[in-house]
Design goal:
Number of strands: 0
Strand content: under 5%
Radius of gyration: 19 Å
Structural class: mainly alpha
Helix content: 55-70%
Distance between the termini: 9 Å
Number of helices: 15
Amino acid sequence: MGRETRRNIRNIDQIQFHVDRKRALTAFDAYTVCYDRADEKVKLKIDHTYRVAALCERIARENGLQGAALDLAWTIGLLHDVGRFEQLRRYGTFVDAQSIDHAQFGADILFLDGGIEAYLPDDTPQEIMTLIETAIRNHSLYRIAEDLDERTTRYCHILRDADKIDIMRVNVDVPLEEIYNTTTQALRSSVVSEAVLQSFSEEHATLRSLKKTPVDYVAGHISLVFELVFPVSVRIMREQGYLEKLLHFESDCEKTREQFAWMRERVEAYMERRLSEQQNGQGAAK
């Protein structure tokens, strides 16, 4: 992170705004109570939201942010998946390709329909509102918009890293059959497509359009590790251990077992390199 970027981020502290976390949490609770919280999928997204908010704050703090800047990072995490709940109620799925873009939908609920008013005071500066909206709209894109200012870009990366870290946990804690709307037999008997494996060779996330088999979705989520921007995010992902568990996916197919063994080697080498770069002081971000 360059000096100019760090200075721009810290200027958030000079903007007169305040986040009442109790108010924001109360608003989120009031919003989600309208859905069936006994439904495991609803509970999944509520728990995911709280964890992502905490991760956003941690990543921001370990990158030198403080005060109002930490509140902003936490708030973005709290609001990022608001669209998931109505998506599930209307379409019965979290798969955007089969329903609606949940990030755009959530941003519309907050900033077009006025939902943000329950979370933040009326005198919140417009530039803060715009930054939050932009981060939410960009959080599930394959790549964020290229025309964003450095400060907005950094908050987008904080959210995206936090979201990716917790996605690994979700894939371990929740049955994969439920996440991917498939069967155990289909998962354990399918192989990883060559195009998906190519993503690992090139060290980038797998495009959604390339995922053809049930196990492609498992491999695709693993490939998100290549998109982590901050070294601290790589460290957190390793510490939590969920990525390692996902990389040891159990398959009935020998070819798939060989593919995952190869992916484990690629991911481990990549993470070692990123963490080594951090230790050697080669920049704060990828």
